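Hey, I'm writing a tutorial for new members on how sequence and structure tokens pair up, and I'd like a real worked example in the thread rather than a made-up one. If someone can provide the structure for the chain below, I'll link this post from the tutorial.
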Amino acid sequence: LIIQSEYVAQLAQDEAVKQEVADLKQSAEEAIEELRRSLQMMREDFDLASGLEDYVKTFRERTQLAVTFSAAGTILKVNPEAQLALFRVLQECLSNSLKHASPSAIEVRLAAAGDRVALSVKDDGKGFELAAKRTGHYGLINMRERANKVGGEVIIESKPGAGTQVTFSIPQTPIA
């Protein structure tokens, strides 16, 4: 797809067509990167903190938002499915914040303590009323489903005008 899009871009005369092809190529490159990242996370030896930090850095560069990452504690062992769930929740939180919250800053924290690893994503955006029904929005539902699948928990805190914080925690086990 990438090679074909490069070929079509060379043939195209119209600037609008060239831009569409460039967007198509970028989407294909992002899909390949996403597949690579997903495969890495499914490995037992994947460095979770570094992977999340790299994604935050890429998101920050792409969006020009003030997004920070910090990690605390020692991550012992998290099963690959739970690692992937944690990463997907990070993606969903950042995407939701960008689309709906209009934040000036986002803080991402990864903390390990005891038998849990927690990811917290906090923005200073618009916030929302938790009790309000939102049709056609499945991000929060998907987060809860991911948490249930891996024995995790999701806590969402938000108020209109006060930003949003999502905390997703999953079990970790001592290294044998």
